[in-house]
Amino acid sequence: MTLIKIDQQRWGNGIEKAKSAYRVFGPVKEKNGHDFKLLETSELPDLNFQNTRLSPKSIIYPQSQVMFTYSLDETKDDCRIMKEVENVKSPMAIIGVRPCDALAFPIVRRNFDTPEYQDVYWIKAYEAATFIGLACNSACGTCFCTSAGTGPFGEEGLDVLIIADGNDLYAKSITAKGASFIQAAGWSSEADSAAAAKIDELKTAAESSITSLVATDKIKNKTILELYDAPFWEQEAFSCINCGTCTYVCPTCWCFDVQDETFGKSGIRMRNWDSCMFPLFTHHASGHNPRNFKYERLRQRFMHKLKYYVDKYDNGIQCVGCGRCIRLCPVNIDIRRICNKMNSFDAETCVCDVTSS
Amino acid sequence: MTIYTDKIKEIAKRVLAEGKVDMVIGFRKGTMPMMNQPLYATSAESADELIWDSSCGINLANYVTDKKGSIGIVAKGCDSRNIVTHVIENKIKRDQLYIIGVPCTGMIDHHKINAMFDGEILNVEESGDTLTISGSGFSEKVIKTDVLRQNCAVCTHRNPVIYDELAGELVAEQKNVDPYASVKTVEAMSADEKWNYFEDLLSSCIRCYACRNACPLCYCPTCFVDESRPQWVGKSQDPTDVRTFHLLRAYHCAGRCTDCGACERVCPMGIKVREFTKKLNKDCLELYGWEAGLSLDDRPPLDTFKTDDPQNFIK
Question: How do beta strands B165-166 and B71-76 pair?
């Protein structure tokens, strides 16, 4: 694949040029860290970040999304007719997606785009997006992407991978969508022959900067009930306050709750991110709560990501190793610790390894 | 404050061995710098995990709500005031608890410290009043008093108000601090300025409810935001609903909040949610001379009636 070299000036000009064809999103420094924003004219993505505080999932799958509008006005012909809202109109490019976050989109797609069901809102937004990744030259202490099916230079889920070498940037086109974006940005200078070797060197250094390793190899061969009935859940859940932080910062959490909001004689049907940490999550209309205790809710989160998903899709874990839930959990519940516990749990002896991370 | 660790372990092991308590609730060292994890110890072995340092900012009173049995609990000043509030509100009985009091010199503000460094912080070592903060390519010494959480910087009740045993000598209380300086700044604003200030304050809220769930006061069986019949508040990111949640949460804490700062510590977005509760604490002090959780013998002003209660605010 052709490698394009982009200097600082061409980078800025290219992004500005691309804005005429795309809505361009990128990381911007906010009050307490970087987050993805729609870039204004002459605003550039700030690439000086380790990872954004929130993942880019909300660009494709907003926290609150109106799906339908309706009228309750009996004098109107369309009374009580749900009308679909067109959510996505034009192509968008998301710049600066880290490889871990990029892998989250194909993972989430397995839920939203199946032969049986297609979630039009998610699919339309996903198809309108071009993902311009940014390789990680050094990992955070909480990153474990190499244990989660990708790596600091991982390409799955990306259309272009940008690699930063000091002030120089290299762009590697991965898909036809990516090639179109590079063309729209007008980036065309081919990198010299030494660049590929340099990139390999950066990649090796980045991979060796990852200090967190998590084992998941044995989870698949355990039965669901072995893990479900494991004795450690109550203990692990003790500190949990059942907030939605882990869920909301997670790039792969996809659950939502549908709500109707009526204002006078008109209304909207919307969906909002939900969290299995909340007592209301899947609460039955009968009053029965399938997960009445907090350890059951915590167990659901980890069993879903590390067991149910693994069994259902046979395609790795539903976690990309971005480490956000570890960094932001207010009470230090660490998915690495729980994952290792699940992996090493022996139902016969009721023993699992206790690790500090 | 790391010197308390050995004493906490010793007390915990002793009261567990004597059968005085079924468990001791404290903290263990977290897997992240400045992030310790609440833990319950039931054996000498698990009690060995107990630690104490300036990152024990979660309020442990939150973990004894409606608990059965006998519980040992490590409590700094604010935690002890929430235990008092819990006892007053019948959420736990005093004689169920063995309180290991920790005279506190304040907790550090991890939001502030993270913002001070460009690189990721990989280690924070505490020694006396000095913190050594290091990461890839940097190592810097910081004086603890410069990086205290705001509620700790203005705290006037550092020593536990009730305890069965202390993990260290009582510390001097701070005298020359104005706990309500930040409220006065907001009070001095015009209505428009206030509106904009709070809009900006809440603009990054993701409604994870960590502030509510970390608060020992928030123990309603079903919180008003989770009620569906009637549904009091919408569930989207609509600013009206976000605002409603925060304002009602604060009002539910009026006359009960000890300014422990757990809500602010746990916010993943670093929102200064104490700005709301602090104003109500100030009102309670000015109107009723009341600070929450100082005595088991006094009823809170909002569940008592006195003929001379101020009523000028009724218009």
Answer: unpaired
